[in-house]
Amino acid sequence: MFAGVADRYDRANRILSMGVDVRWRKAAVAFAGVGAGEEALDVCAGTGDLTCALRDAGARVVGSDFCPEMLAHAVDKWPHAERPRYVAGDTLKLPFRDDSFDLATVAFGIRNVEDPTAGIRELARVVRPGGRVVVLEFCRPRVPLFRSAYMLYFRRILPRLGSWITGDRAGAYEYLPDSVMAFPEREQFLELMRDAGLVAPKMKVLTGGIAALYRGEVEERTN
Asked: What percent of the chain has pLDDT over 90?
């Protein structure tokens, strides 16, 4: 499904979000508190937008995604000498040793993982104690009038527009709102992070509740 929209995925994101998704990723980098020289892992990296934003902030980044066709578009976003390293990999079984990174991120991808709690737990495994896991994911507005208008767009207009922009025939943009509506958000997602072993989880709601940032810390491990 994702391979089928890879060629026009970035264009669709810019149009469907009216460019707001770029600001969301910058907010994710700020929320993560990325420092120059830190080692970061970005999973479900897709075409590399968040991976590149982390690289812009000075991190040494590895981008990982299950879909090689998406990663093929990510590699062209940086000159070769400065390009983040990209690895085709399953978020539920990452090809990295324990404590390999200072932080791990995932943008709009954790709801696509078969077992999101296990996925967050796997991110925590590869992050060093004291490091952090940051998630950017869609959310549902709660202000009644705004919620009604947004849900009309999200469930009725966006799927048709997304399919038209990308030429999608596999139902990717029908899947998008369905997956968001079924996914835990806000306090429920903070509880999911706790279940995955992260501590001190916190969140920041973006753009009236259309998206949210979540951050949890990796605690010291005991033998």
From this structure: 86
Question: Rounded to 5 degrees, what are φ and ψ at 165?
Answer: -65, -45
CA torsion 37-94-13-39 (nearest 10°) is 0
CB atoms within 10 A of CB 35: 12
Question: Nearest CA to 177 among 193, 192, 162?
Answer: 162
Nearest Cα residue to 215 out of 33, 40, 42, 59: 33
E strand segments, the chain: 39-43, 60-65, 85-88, 101-107, 127-138, 198-206, 211-218
CA angle 89, 154, 202 (to 5 degrees): 60
> What confidence score (pLDDT) does residue 80 get?
67
Domains in the chain with CATH codes: 3-142+184-218 (3.40.50.150)
